[in-house]
Amino acid sequence: MKRSETIKAALISLLLFCLAIGAWHLATLPKESLAISGADVEYAALMGAGAQKASGFPPPAEVGKAFIRYLSDPFYDNGPNDKGIAIQLGHSLLRVGLGFILAILVAIPLGFVIGMSPLLMKALDPFIQVLKPISPLAWMPLALYTLKDSNVSGIFVIFICSVWPMLINTAFGVASVRRDWLNVARTLEVSPLRKAFLVILPAAAPTILTGMRISMGIAWLVIVAAEMLVGGTGIGYFVWNEWNNLALPNVIFAITMIGVVGMGLDALFGRLQKLVTYRE
Amino acid sequence: MSTHFLYIEALKKVYPSSNNTPNSPVFEDIHFHIEKGEFVCIIGHSGCGKTTILNVVAGLEEASAGYVLMDGREIKGPSLDRGVVFQSHALMPWMSVLGNVAFAVRSKWPAWTKSQVVAHCTQYLEMVGLGDAVLKKPAELSGGMKQRVGIARAFAIQPKMLLLDEPFGALDALTRGTIQDELRKIVQATHQTIFMITHDVDEAILLADKIVLMSNGPHAKIAEIVEVTMARNRIRAEIHHDPQYYRIRNHLVDFLVNRSKSYAGAESGAAHDPKNPPVVRPGLEGDNNPVLQPPTENSVPPLKQVVNQ
Amino acid sequence: MDTSRKWLAPVSRARSRRLNRSMLLGNSVPQGVAHLLLKMFVNQLNGSPVMSLHDPFDSNMSLSRCSCGNHGSQAEHDVALVPGDVEGLNRRVVQGAVMRALFPDDIERRRFLSVVGASTAWAAISSLVPFGALEAMAQEKGSLEKKSLKIGFIPITCASPLIMADPLGFYKKQGLDVTVIKTAGWALIRDKVINKEYDASHMLAPMPISISMGVGSNAMPVNVATIQNVNGQAITLHVKHKDKRDPKQWKGFKFAVPFEYSMHNFLLRYYVAEHGLDPEKDIQIRVVPPPEMVANLRAGNLDGYLGPDPFNQRAVFDEVGFIHLLSKEIWDGHPCCSFGVPTQFIKENPNTFAALYRAVLTAAAMANDPKNRSIMAEVLSPANYLNQPKTVLEQVLTGKFADGLGGVQNVPDRAGFDPFPWYSMAVWILTQMKRWGYIKGEVKYRDIAEQVYLVTDARKRMSELGMAVPAESYKKFKVMGKEFDPAKPDAYVASFAIRRS
User: Fold this and answer.
1) Does the predicted interface ipTM exceed a cut of 0.85?
2) Nearest Cβ partner of B90 from A181, A202, A279?
3) Can you state the percent helix, strand and coil of chain B, rounding each to 5?
4) I need a labelling partner for B175 at 20 to 30 A (CA). Which of B282, C105, C282, C292 fits?
5) What is the pLDDT confidence band of residue B195, given thresholds at 50, 70 and 90?
6) CATH number, domain at B242?
7) Where residue C126 falls among pLDDT bands split at 50, 70, 90?
8) Average pLDDT for residues B293-307, to the nearest whole number?
9) What CATH fold (topology level) applies to the domain C233-329?
10) Is a pLDDT exceeding 50 seen at residue C75?
11) Partner A contacted by C48 (CB < 8 A)
12) pLDDT digit string (tens) for C167-184?
């Protein structure tokens, strides 16, 4: 019963996909090109007539070609400014990973402290509320100026955007650990460290993981923008580089990859979340 | 100072108020004591501060005034000497049944090996009839089973005293009965000193040696202490055959329904000395004369007279 | 096409040698071949473990064995025989390498020399190969302080020389391991240079001045080693403005320039001001990174821009814009971009800087030669460099282009790569910075120009490489018909009706 529903859903998804591609294909069918008189031949050649023009939305077949071209050789390396999609994604993931780990290292302990101390929570709340809504990219000029390294700045931007959801969720998760569990730990004279790791952390873990999942989503959104800004390597740079060339099929390809990887990351955190979620 | 095992002296609790007018104390002038091996229940209406008293004894809360001595030492904060069974079982849902008990056992005996811990835990879980469920998560258990795990956890650390905060309140009558029986058996076997909050008069009569009756809050006090004079090996199925049972029960219900209000606040009057709350034995009333033994020379008028005034 | 393949793939060197030899003997030598020879020569110089030091023009001499037989190699032989004559030795190293590059086979070389005669051969070859420069290079190859360098560039044709030096191996030949890194915008170039992420960089000609003066950034002394390119910019307008060719009709237009401190900004302001528009009141000028200009033009965010190529031509190619005016029509020979190197880097790495200088100048000379432009278009086209259709780049570089109005224009000097950093250029830039209020107070035009622009070094390096060098460092020139005298900058600034100072 459940399985047949899954199959049905998959079929509908597939159908929608085919319809969308079909509509796209029809909408981008090449228009009848006007006959070119002899005198204009040279001009037309210079204007790139006959060649694939970037103007106009690319038909699905063009995009498909881009997919095949990039996916068939994901690891090529044509010098520092032109690398395969897997390498670019690797760079982006590395930046996101580093910034994210940094954010974990800061947000979880700090969130713990804030969550345990209502006083600190009150004291730090205004700062968090002011810093949280700042667009991560707005930090970029400041980061470049102070950190003096564009790569580090990129990682910093990831850090700063991932840190808030994690911090707030950790603090909230820790603050709302059931009084009973804490009391159990108190009556058992459990050491603070043991209490933190065996009671508070697992109790707050679902909330913390939710924060991490939100953070990862934001980080993945931001890395693309950050790399478009700072460039060099990464999927954002890839998009930027293809934008320069107004090569929309490649941009569409990159967008799809960003989506797929983002989905993968979200699924990963979804699984982690499932692992730490407990039923009461 | 005292030879009693647990000694509660002049306990008072005032919660901080949100506005400027000071709150009146939830309870004040609480004096009573528990002997080793005694099973004491406390009964009173909601809001009289039973749970607060238990928490103070557990060390989880601080009293505004007064103190609690156990074994001659003042209680300052929680300790492994006092095991607590919480109203809402308070099991860690991410740990297995065994894990929950083992968490407590490791806290008490950190040096134990894993097999020692497991053996010890299993023993106590078998004691509450959960030998088969050790690897289950609390979410897979029924309410009664969860509460059993809570009891096993409290017993497993072998505390000097056990504090139970209305442990069976959330259970259905049938399950409650079964667990009450189990608890009684275990207590008889272990001679555990127990202080328990309950709302259930029958439960108190079945389990307790002494029942502390509290008047209503605010300004709640101990109205009287009822000694359950029935034989200790009570059996739930037969208890209602004992004539004492109804006398005690009537006495308690009468208190809860009619008299609990009158001890509150100022009108408790000079007649009632909270330092020496009257000890009554309603179970023996019908056979002999009511044995009222006010321990002081300030003789307290019979309680019924208080009511009839 | 064939020549470009040879440049791109050194593997086919043997084949190209044969080809060139036949051309050489047939006396029909295309100019591009000189650079090819240069490249081959440098290959030989760096690559061969044994150098021949005896007279390479002696037809009886074998180049691969010691001539007397007493020494393990010809090198040892020569060192043993001619002590002290370092210069002569050096010349022969160079000449030998060239000869070996041309004639890998000893028998052929002897036959060639005996047929045409050694002196004729020498004359023929030295007309193609700047021996003086090569010898100087060989001499001055002191130990490099830093070999691994990072150089930033913006993907525009202005950067061609310093990009081309990479695939052509000019950096490598100087013993440098250079990574050229594509960068998203000029502000980022500035920051990465200040942060020392880049050792040197492609910069707009005014940037080293503004950065050195601390205008618009922290002050950090940066020098202009060479001008990267002259001309090569254009005013592009959106196709919907095809009928608005008179700047007086541009009131309220939104224009883009790549950076505040850019020739584009100054030239656009100059141009509209000459037509009576106040660039700060009558039009809007925004900063948009060059690569984003076409996209913004298409989106209607801009009415036009004075931008670097290939983005003018790209707008035409994409049918969103037309070329209103080439920048050479405002000021023919204006500088656009420069090769900026932080002063500190030059001081700390004099030998590396010299090597870098030679590589970039060699590349500039190559790029400035119109014969090479088609090949450049092909080399620069891939994603690693400019990432543009080849035909767009070709139109920019050869000057035969579609103007977006239906016409084909032929302007061979649309883009040039004259590297000489005239002080007078810097002074003009300063007059415009002064004019528009970017700098205030008294400006020491000459001091700043002479501090930032490295004319002396450029002159030295260029003559080493056998390039023609002007004798003077200042010159007068005309911008839109109005003469600029670098000796009277203040009067020049004061002569404008529309100005902010």
Assistant:
1) no
2) A181
3) 35, 20, 45
4) B282
5) very high
6) 3.40.50.300
7) low
8) 42
9) D-Maltodextrin-Binding Protein; domain 2 (3.40.190)
10) no
11) no
12) 888 888 888 888 888 888
Cβ–Cβ below 8 Å for B78 and A280 = no
pLDDT of residue B257 exceeding 70: yes
pLDDT score for C89: 47
pLDDT tens by residue, B207-232 = 899 999 888 878 888 888 888 888 88
A141 neighbors A78 (Cβ within 8 angstroms): no
Q: Which domain holds residue A187?
A: 85-276
Is there a contact between B210 and B228 (Cβ–Cβ < 8 Å)? yes
Q: Which of B224, B106, B87, B240 is nearest to B167 (CA)?
A: B87
Residue A53 resides in a domain: no
- The answer as to whether B154 is a domain residue is no
- Measured distance CA(C293)–CA(C315) in Å, rounded: 9
Task: State if pTM tops 0.90.
Answer: no
Listed in order, the ranges of chain C carrying CATH 3.40.190.10 are 148-230+335-395+407-494, 233-329
| Beta-carbon pairs below 8 A across chains A and B | 62
Asked if C339 contacts C193 with a C-beta cutoff of 8 angstroms, the reply is no
Confidence of residue C187 (pLDDT cuts 50, 70, 90): confident
| The pairing of beta strand C177-182 with beta strand C148-153 | parallel
C314 CB near a chain A CB, below 8 Å?
A: yes
Q: Say which CATH topology domain C148-230+335-395+407-494 has.
A: D-Maltodextrin-Binding Protein; domain 2 (3.40.190)
Using CA atoms, how far apart are residues A153 and A161, in angstroms rounded to an integer?
A: 12
| CA atoms of A151 and C195, how far apart (whole Å) | 12
| Range A14-33 average pLDDT | 81
Q: Report which of residues C118 and C455 the model is more confident about.
A: C455
Can you give the residue range of the structural domain that contains B278? 6-78+199-308
CA pseudo-torsion sign A81, A83, A89, A94? negative
**Residue B243 within any structural domain of the chain:** yes
Radius of gyration of chain A (CA): 25
pLDDT at C54 over 80: no
Nearest to A198 among B77, B103, B137 (CB): B103
Alpha-carbon span C370 to B117, nearest angstrom: 88
Q: Please check whether residue B176 is in contact with residue B203, taking contact to mean a CB–CB distance below 8 angstroms.
A: yes
Going by the DSSP 8-state scheme, the letter that residue B8 receives in this structure is E
Of B80, B93, B137, the CB nearest to A189: B80
**H-helix segments, C318-389:** 343-348, 350-368, 373-380
The CATH number of residue A262's host domain is 1.10.3720.10
C193 contact A CB<8A: no
